[in-house]
Amino acid sequence: MPQSPVIRAAYRARAAAAEIAPLPRSVKDDVLLAIADALEVRTAEIVEANAEDVARAREAGTGATVIDRLTLTPERIRAIAGDVRDVAALPDPVGEIVRGSTLPNGIDLRQVRVPLGVVGIIYEARPNVTVDAAALCLKAGNAVLLRGSSSASASNLALVTVLRDAVGGAGLPADSVQLVPGEGREPVRELMRARGMVDVLIPRGGASLIRTVVEEATVPVIETGTGNCHVYVDAETDLAMAVEILINSKAQRPSVCNAAETLLVHQDVAEAFLPLALRALAEAGVTVHGDERVRELAERVDSGATVVEATAEDWETEYLSHDIAAAVVDSLDAAVAHIRLWSSGHTEAIVTTSQAAARRFTQLVDSTTVAVNASTRFTDGGQFGFGAEIGISTQKLHARGPMGLPELTSTKYVVTGDGHVRGGPRPSR
Amino acid sequence: MPQSPVIRAAYRARAAAAEIAPLPRSVKDDVLLAIADALEVRTAEIVEANAEDVARAREAGTGATVIDRLTLTPERIRAIAGDVRDVAALPDPVGEIVRGSTLPNGIDLRQVRVPLGVVGIIYEARPNVTVDAAALCLKAGNAVLLRGSSSASASNLALVTVLRDAVGGAGLPADSVQLVPGEGREPVRELMRARGMVDVLIPRGGASLIRTVVEEATVPVIETGTGNCHVYVDAETDLAMAVEILINSKAQRPSVCNAAETLLVHQDVAEAFLPLALRALAEAGVTVHGDERVRELAERVDSGATVVEATAEDWETEYLSHDIAAAVVDSLDAAVAHIRLWSSGHTEAIVTTSQAAARRFTQLVDSTTVAVNASTRFTDGGQFGFGAEIGISTQKLHARGPMGLPELTSTKYVVTGDGHVRGGPRPSR
Q1: CB neighbours of residue B132 within 10 Å
Q2: Contacts by A281-286 with C-beta closer than 8 Å and gap 24+?
Q3: B218 has a chain A CB within 8 A of its CB
Q4: Do A420 and B374 touch (CB under 8 A)?
Q5: pLDDT value of position B2
Q6: Which of A195, A310, A317, A404 could share a disulfide with A386, CB 3.0–4.6 Å?
Q7: Over the stretch A268-292, which tens digit does the pLDDT of each residue have?
């Protein structure tokens, strides 16, 4: 028998997954409602554990923003419980017939959604991910192995304790929800190499975490990558709309993956658009990293914008701050070429009044999302109507873009005959 | 600029993929028809190159079966060309709207199928895979990088030359189809680590190849794994049907992945069923590796069957030969437990007259395919009506079971608004 705590946890998760996979939605929803209630009832216990983490973070000199992300208040716990109840209200993807037909020989073929099995989530920062991810995984019939940030270890332990008690109290195996045990990097490495026991890994966090997991894991990974998103303003455009979409994409919430990081402007509209854009960006407190043509125009305009020189690094940088790279391009195709070269493949927006331009941009751009006359900020499971989101995948296999409950499932085929055999006569029954 | 031939080939493939991704079906079909014609016109050239490979194999003392798989005759080339024309006749998955809706705020959301991009195929043996894989990839708008067996190197080079000439002659980039250059293992290793340039790897071959690729690749892999398939004969069953399905699953074509490798028999029907099964297996020339209860019964019956003792190794072995492991189980749930422990997750069949048993088995078994009263041999893209098959995936992400054209695609979202921004008023337009 394997001795490692991580492998033993994976075995327990596998056993739990086998038990919960066939459960109907009503049973799973009852568990989620029990979880929501338990979170509210045991708020004091969670807040107390969280206070330990916050105190440790303060002693370590952690910045105020990070401490705020780490902090769980009774209000926040109530909101988290509300989110769990929302997941209970969502349709169950498990059991959906994706496709079906009767084959020429009379066999009935069905492709049906099934749980993935054991989902591993490796995440940084906010402890509410512990609950959100567990709720989504359970709803889709999966067991979950959670590896959070060490800075939130007491909070995550308290939350998982509450989750496990609620799950077990509702009659399901408590091991449907587990923390990955052990300190340091070795447990994470074992988790990443546990192919066959863990069905998928979803890393959520910074580029460094994602890269490590993608490179080292033998377990299939869903890459939730960076968002080096672009806004392209076409020659034929509505100037006012372009400014609104630019500012919303960049500055409404700069620290998230669907915030725009680069502005591309068709040369034919640069003279008319850039002055408006620079002024608006200045008002929004955004520093512009401009190419030669942008800088040249900025010098002739009194916009109040801070404009610095863009280097190659700027084109590939996800600033996540009040900064934007900006360039004038010769054509729509040149914009597409720039995007192909530099984009992380998350979201690219075009603002245009030309139907042909919208169509061409949409055809040629290969990212998770192409936005036409809309902000890049809409790339979001909630905005897409999914009801919940486990992350935004920037890879092409299995899931691409915002991921909801169906992305936490696999499928299987069910073939039903009357004694059908290959190469034989069709049964007369 | 990177110097490696493999990386340069990947860059060329990427550029070709960008060019062919937006092409409509009619253009792609014309290319496929040109390929089919070219294969027929240049048959002599292909046969001549193939003769080199066959001669080398003979000198190396290669067995007759393998040499036969390696051999390309004019008839076989004609059949391959016919398969390419069949692919041209299939629907194009690219451009399919997977789902779409109008969001509450008026934004139109569409999820549309797009090519994966650059597909890498690493394969052993049969040179027709060179053409089949290229045709399927092209149809789905992908560029393909092919790495075949060194034993078929001259054949594959000749085939790819014909393919590239046909593709280029039809006005598409010849680099849509390339062989991975270079000798030995290093080019394959580079291909496997070319994440970001190659979008997916599909290894087709023996367990050792699959394992190497799965463990070493950073490029996403679709695992086409082994088929340790099971036939379970339930307490309530049609004995004659069970014998037919058993023999067809095991012996109709033992060397393929969807052939059955283990028979499980409910104890309540063992006395009635096993004598019939053993006689039929004996007639089919199949050696039975039986557990204690199977062997005990076999001794009391004059079946003519060769029955040897099964060890733990037998339960996990994919024989691909005239061998089958056999055990008597206490119950349906015991059969499911055995399958969970030993199966490679390919195909499991139940033969039963009980609707409840069929339902329970179908719910509890987690493999690519569950067959009810049908042979395991139906797990096949052609049989499922896909028109073509790139392989059978035994993994859970992206594709599971027989893979057709849609599995060679990804998706992207298209979000269309009228100037919509997050947190802002809905545009009045």
Answers
A1: 20
A2: A281/A246, A281/A247, A281/A250, A281/A251, A281/A305, A281/A324, A282/A306, A284/A247, A284/A250, A284/A251, A284/A322, A285/A251, A285/A322, A286/A250, A286/A251, A286/A322, A286/A323, A286/A324
A3: yes
A4: yes
A5: 59
A6: A404
A7: 999 999 999 999 999 999 999 999 9
B107 CA to centre of own chain: 39
Q: What is the ipTM of this complex?
A: 0.94
Q: Which residues of B touch A111 (CB under 8 A)?
A: 401
Task: Dig out the tokens for B300 from the structure.
Answer: 């009391």
Residue of A nearest to B259 (CA): A422
pLDDT tier at B15 (50, 70, 90 boundaries)? very high
Nearest CB among A107, A218, A384 relative to B109 is that of A384
B303 CA: distance to closest CA in chain A (Å): 23
A379 vs B413: CB contact, 8 Å cut-off?
yes
Asked if B248 reaches chain A (Cβ–Cβ under 8 Å), the answer is: yes
Chain A positions touching B419 (Cβ under 8 A) are: 238, 241, 244-245, 373-374
Residues of chain B contacting A252 with CB distance shorter than 8 Å:
421-423
| Nearest-neighbour CA in chain A from B203: distance (Å) | 15
**Average pLDDT of the residues of chain A:** 95
- Measured between beta carbons, the chain B residues lying within 8 angstroms of A424 are 244, 248
* Structure-block tokens of residue A132: 């959100």
pLDDT at B424: 75
Instruction: Inform me whether the C-beta atom of residue B429 falls under 8 Å from chain A C-beta atoms.
Output: no
A363 CB neighbours in chain B (<8 A) are: 22
pLDDT at B180: 96
**CA A299/CA A301 separation, integer angstroms:** 6
Nearby residues of A262 by Cβ (< 8 Å), 6 or more positions away: A228, A229, A230, A231, A315, A324, A325, A326, A327, A338, A342
- Return the residue of A nearest to B376 by Cα: A421
The residues with which A372 forms a beta bridge, in sequence order, are A350, B416
Q: Residue B346: name the closest of B382, B378, B386, B309 by CA.
A: B378
- Beta-strand (E) ranges in A175-272? 177-179, 200-204, 229-233, 260-266
Size of interface A-B (CB pairs under 8 A): 211
Please give, rounded to a whole number of angstroms, the shortest distance from the CA of A113 to a CA of chain B: 11
Which chain A residues are within 8 Å of B398, Cβ to Cβ? 397-398
Alpha-helical (H) ranges within B124-206 are: 128-139, 153-169, 186-192
Query: What is the H or E stretch that residue B229 is in?
Result: strand B229-233
Q: For residue B248, give the nearest of A374, A378, A424 by CB distance.
A: A424
Please check whether residue A365 is in contact with residue A242, taking contact to mean a CB–CB distance below 8 angstroms. no
E strands present in A209-277: 229-233, 260-266
> In chain A, which among 344-363 make CB contacts under 8 A with chain B?
358, 362-363
Contact of A327 with A290, CB cutoff 8 Å: yes
At residue B383, does pLDDT exceed 60?
Answer: yes
Q: Among B401, B409, B370, B405, which residue's Cα sits nearest to residue B386? A: B405
Do the Cβ atoms of A374 and B412 come within 8 Å? no
Model confidence over A117-157: pLDDT tens digits?
A: 999 999 987 899 999 999 999 999 999 999 999 999 999 99
Please state the rounded mean pLDDT for residues A50-60.
96
Domains of chain A listed by start with CATH number: 5-225+395-414 (3.40.605.10), 229-378 (3.40.309.10)
Say which DSSP state B61 is in.
T
Structure tokens at A142: 């999966």
Interface of B with A in 48-107 (CB under 8 A): 101, 103-104, 107
* Residues A187-229 pLDDT 10s: 999 999 999 899 999 999 888 899 899 888 989 999 998 999 9
Residues 6+ apart with CB under 8 A from A78: A40, A43
- Give the Cα separation of A328 and B261 in Å (integer): 64
